[in-house]
Design brief:
With 355 residues, the chain is an all-alpha fold. It has one domain (7-346). 77% of the residues lie in helices and 0% in strands. It has helices at 7-34, 37-43, 48-75, 82-97, 105-115, 120-139, 142-147, 156-182, 184-200, 206-232, 235-253, 255-262, 269-283, 294-306, 309-339. The protein is globular and about 65 Å long. The N and C termini lie close together (4 Å).
């Protein structure tokens, strides 16, 4: 299996630096624009027990996410322990945070599963299905969100623009998925052209090209077969994974209403869940690492629909820390344990005989 190139560690570190820097800058701007004296008065009325419930929901999100992943692995005919599925879940949060459009979690998971003896084709199929399930569950809420009369300050234009952008992106994604199933030779041909171009540009050694092309041919066939196995043989486990995914998303979307409830404010549960779902769906397509910047500013905007602006900024950032940053930090610790302090630089170089 080909490991990342030498620049991978640098890319991970740059992504992490970009994520932290942009998140801090936007967070500072949000706090500066929102916090005043009335903020502290409201915070003093917060109920610690209710906040503990919100923290418990975060842990449940991780557990159901891990159960979803484990079910999909079993649907592919493999077995992993629940503790390992939790590690895969957390490292996915870290990988998503340091890459544009949250795309880096899958490669980390694929490599960790490969080290446990699961083929790349199966691992790619599992991570792809996992991501598509999340997008499908969130995407199904969009028509309901747009039908509800939710007051979103000064945001109608960018929501319409983003929905159009997302629809086009998802159409392209489904086109690639369909082509990978019905036209695997085309995928091999396009991948081969990409490898040749990288070699000509000096990014790959010429002596590795033929081995890489053989590996691509083998893994595309394995991926194609494993997706078909999902459809034919792993139906029950797939349905279990779908059920876990729906439950995980429902629990996640309940955290924000729980935080508002902990502040002693009125909770508009359905509206809060639907608006969150649209926001999370759009974050998948923000080009910054982990959606940083847009996530912090967007969280404050979502809260401002349901709570006074003087507390919306702090609650938005607190919600973001609780639901995302905690998982990212734990994922970072797992990444360091797996790959060393240099992260991706600890992965093996390309094997000339068995890429």
């Amino acid at each position: 299996m080909p490991g990342p190139l030498k620049g991978s560690a640098l890319t991970v570190k740059k992504g992490l630096s970009f994520f932290v820097t942009l998140s801090l800058l936007v967070s500072g701007a949000v706090l500066y624009a929102s916090v005043d004296r009335s903020s502290f008065e409201l915070f003093r009325r917060a109920d610690p027990c209710r906040l503990s419930v919100a923290a418990l929901l975060v842990v449940l999100v991780w557990l159901f996410d891990a159960l979803k992943l484990r079910s999909l692995v079993m649907a592919a005919g493999e077995r992993i322990s629940f503790s390992f599925s939790v590690q895969l879940t957390l490292i996915n949060y870290f990988g998503a945070a340091v890459t544009p459009m949250q795309s880096g979690g899958g490669p980390f998971q694929v490599y960790m599963m490969y080290r446990r003896g699961i083929g790349v084709g199966k691992s790619v199929a599992v991570t792809l299905v996992r991501t598509v399930l999340s997008l499908l569950i969130l995407g199904l809420t969009i028509p309901f969100t747009l039908m509800f009369d939710i007051d979103i300050p000064k945001s109608g234009w960018w929501i319409r623009g983003f929905v159009f952008y997302v629809v086009v992106f998802i159409m392209l994604l489904w086109l690639v998925i369909i082509l990978s199933l019905v036209k695997p030779r085309l995928i091999k041909r396009v991948s081969g052209i990409a490898v040749m171009l990288l070699a000509r540009a000096g990014f790959l050694k010429q002596r590795l090209v033929s081995a890489i092309l053989r590996w691509i041919d083998r893994e595309v066939d394995a991926y194609n077969q494993n997706i078909r196995d999902f459809i034919r043989g792993g139906r029950n486990y797939f349905l279990l994974g779908l059920l876990c995914g729906v439950t995980q998303m429902w629990v996640y979307l309940s955290i924000m209403p729980c935080v508002i409830w902990a502040m002693g404010l009125e909770v508009m549960y359905v509206e809060c869940v639907l608006l969150q779902a649209l926001f999370l769906f759009l974050l998948y397509f923000i080009p910054t690492p982990g959606g940083s910047g847009a996530a912090e500013g967007g969280a404050a905007m979502i809260f401002s629909v349901f709570v006074p602006w003087s507390v919306a900024g702090v609650l938005g950032l607190g919600w973001r820390f609780l639901t995302e940053y905690t998982g990212i930090i734990l994922g970072l610790l797992i990444a360091v344990k797996e790959f060393g302090l240099n992260l991706a630089s600890g992965l093996p170089e390309k094997d000339e005989e068995n890429p």
